[in-house]
Amino acid sequence: MPDKNSKDKNGKMKEKLSKEKNKELLSWKETWKYSLRALKLFYRYRPGLLWIHTFYTVYTALTPFVNIFLSARIIEELSGGRDPHRLTLLVLLTLGLAALLSLITSLTRRHFRVEDQYLYWLERTIRADKILNMDYALVDDTKIHEKLDTLEQYSSGAGRSLRRVIWFYDMILSGVVSLFGGFSLSVSLFTSRVPESAGGLTALNNPLFVVLIVGLLIAVTYLAPFFVVKADAVWAKSAGSQNLGNRLFSFYGYLGHRSHKAEDVRLYRQEALCGKYNKDKEGTFHSRGYYAMQTRGPVGIYYAVASVFSVIFTGVIYLFVCSKAWAGAFGLGMVTQYISTTSRLSGKVSSLFQVLGQARNHATFLKLNFDFLDIENTMAQGSRHLERLHDTEYTIEFQDVSFRYPGSEQYVLRHISMKFHAGQKIAVVGQNGSGKTTFIKLLCRLYDPTEGVILLNGVDIREYDYQEYLSIFSVVFQDFCLTNFTLGQNVAAKEEYDRAHVEDCLEKAGFEERLRSLPLGTDTYLSKDLSDEGVDMSGGEKQKIALARTLYKDAPFIILDEPTAALDPIAEAEIYSRFNELVENKTAIYISHRLSSCRFCDNILVFHKGSVVQQGSHDSLVQDSDGKYHELWFAQAQYYTGS
Question: How many DSSP H helices and E strands does the chain contain?
Answer without folding.
Answer: 23, 10
